[in-house]
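Weekly puzzle thread! Below is a chain. First person to post its structure in C-alpha cell form gets bragging rights.
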Amino acid sequence: MDSFLNRLLKHWYDEITLKEVAADAGVTVQTLVRRFGGKGGLLKEAVAKLAGEINDQRVTSYEDPVVLVESLLDDYERTGDAVLRLLALEHRHEDLADLLDFGRSQHREWVVRTFPGPLDREALDILVVATDVYTWKLLCRDMGREREQYRDIVIGLIDRVLAEQGEETT
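Winning reply:
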C-alpha cells in the first residue's frame, strides 16, 4: 500500500500500474490482487491511510490562525497536487467518486470541528471554500502567491466570516 501511495502522490491514478507497484514493493501482482483485490482496493486503503495522516497533522483549533493555516498549507504542499489529479479524473473512474466524496465530507467536518460556532450554512460554506484545495491551487499554483501571501489571504477570509458570524449572534 505504501508503494501505491508513493506513486499516487507523484503520478496520475490512471497511469499507475499494478506491475509498477508490485515491483516497488518487492511482491508479485498476484499478491497485490490477493491482498487488495486490485487497483481499486489499493486506492481505497491508501486514501484511508492518507486521510488518517491528514487528520492527525491538521490543527483543529483556530486559537492561533497562523499555526492552523500553516498546517493546512503543509498538507496541501504534500497532497494537494495528487488530490487535484484525482479530482480531474473523478468522472472517468468510478473508483474515485466515493473516495473523493469521502474527502469532501472529511474536509467539511474538519471545518465544523475547527472553527467556533454556531455557524450558519453560508458561513460554513465560505469557510469550506476558503480552506479548500482548489483555493490553494488558485492562489499558489495559478497566481503564484508565496506561502506567507496564501496564509494572510486565507486568514483574512476566515476572520471576515467569523467576524460577521459574531455580529449576527450578538
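Puzzle host: Confirmed. Bonus trivia for everyone else. The chain is about 75% helix and 0% strand.
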